[in-house]
Design goal:
Blueprint: E1 8-10, H1 17-24, H2 30-43, E2 47-49, H3 58-66, E3 72-77, H4 87-99, E4 104-109, H5 115-127, E5 131-137, H6 141-153, E6 160-164, H7 171-174, H8 177-183, E7 187-191, H9 210-215, H10 223-236, H11 240-250, E8 254-258, H12 262-271, H13 278-291
Parallel strand pairs: 1-2, 1-8, 2-3, 3-4, 4-5, 5-6, 6-7, 7-8
Helix pairs in contact: 2-12, 3-4, 5-6, 10-11, 10-13, 11-12
């Protein structure tokens, strides 16, 4: 299957009514999500990023029910606890049962806990043909270097790194991780590209959600940035949200965006085909840095990682 991936559909907000409203401020019926998936297949946006806890477990089952023959599945093992033998295998087997598949296309170690032990088990599953590509998520630069070394010792390349990144959260770019990925032919996927709705047109009203309750407090800091984003959007006949998506793709970063409706899939497909100019990128970054908005952050999950696992290679 073609792995030239431009954009990824996130599924964190797929699921039941209560979950959807709490996380995104609204509920979207399963049938609409299925229509969005059909639109993605038509437009060539066929990659779906999953994890067992998305939708409180419902998201993966939905994907399996909708059909997975012609799509690319990105799934994860999340090590909330220390490594125990066969922990990854048991989790992947549940994934495959949900997906009605014998393999996943890309499998990510979701946190840098017991990196060597977890990756060694993922390597075994890779060799059995149950995983086609291996990535790591929420890893810092030194942990990525270690992961690449472990995989290469087994004759396997590190496919990708999946971390938080957006116009207003570019730490992985500033500390060298993204440059390292480019230098080593490692794909970089960005989650929270829209910062839970913070990087959309502020004039568009949306429903209440727990995430938005936090992010909305930052809007006053972003007034000047919004003006730049709105101006850039007009230049390309796209929306502010699409500017945030195009910002990533223009810089060689793969945006993961939570699409639940066909319209959102269409917008994502158009956004990643738009190339912002160097001058537009520079102006956006300058205003974003001046705003100094506080978001949940690139290291939001670090509290899960035991201190002794924060290694230096």
């Amino acid at each position: 299957m073609d792995m030239d991936i431009k954009a990824v559909i996130g599924t964190n907000s797929w699921g039941g009514k209560l979950y959807g409203k709490a996380l995104r401020g609204s509920y979207v019926d399963d049938s609409v999500i299925k229509e969005a998936m059909e639109e993605g297949n038509r437009l060539g946006i066929k990659v779906y990023d999953m994890a067992r806890d998305y939708g409180l477990g419902k998201a993966q089952k939905m994907l399996g029910e909708f059909g997975t023959d012609d799509i690319i599945i990105s799934a994860k093992y999340t090590p909330f606890k220390r490594y125990k033998k066969n922990c990854v295998r048991r989790s992947l087997e549940k994934d495959l049962e949900d997906f009605h598949r014998r393999y996943v296309d890309i499998y990510w170690l979701h946190l840098p806990i017991d990196i060597k032990e977890h990756l060694n088990e993922i390597i075994d599953l890779y060799k059995e043909g149950k995983i086609h590509y291996i990535g790591v998520s929420n890893f810092d630069l030194e942990e990525c270097r270690l992961s690449k070394q472990i995989l290469e010792n087994a004759g396997i390349p590190l496919y990708g790194v999946q971390n938080h990144y957006s116009i207003i959260s570019r730490e992985w770019e500033k500390n060298g991780l993204i440059d390292w990925c480019k230098a080593n032919n490692v794909s970089f996927w960005a989650w929270a590209v829209l910062e839970e709705g913070l990087l959309v047109d502020p004039n568009i009203k949306s429903g209440f959600s727990l995430m938005k309750m936090y992010t909305n407090r930052q809007k006053k800091k972003l007034r000047d940035l919004y003006r730049v984003l709105i101006s850039t959007a007009k230049n390309h006949d796209i929306s502010v949200a699409q500017v945030a998506e195009s910002f990533c793709s223009t810089k060689g970063i793969v945006p993961i965006c939570g699409c639940r409706k066909p319209r959102q899939v269409k917008e994502l497909a158009k956004a990643v085909d738009v190339k912002l100019t160097d001058a537009e990128i520079k102006r956006i970054e300058e205003e974003a840095d001046r705003a100094n908005a506080k978001v949940l952050g690139h290291d939001i999950f670090r509290f899960y990682v035991p201190k002794k696992d924060k290694i230096t290679v």
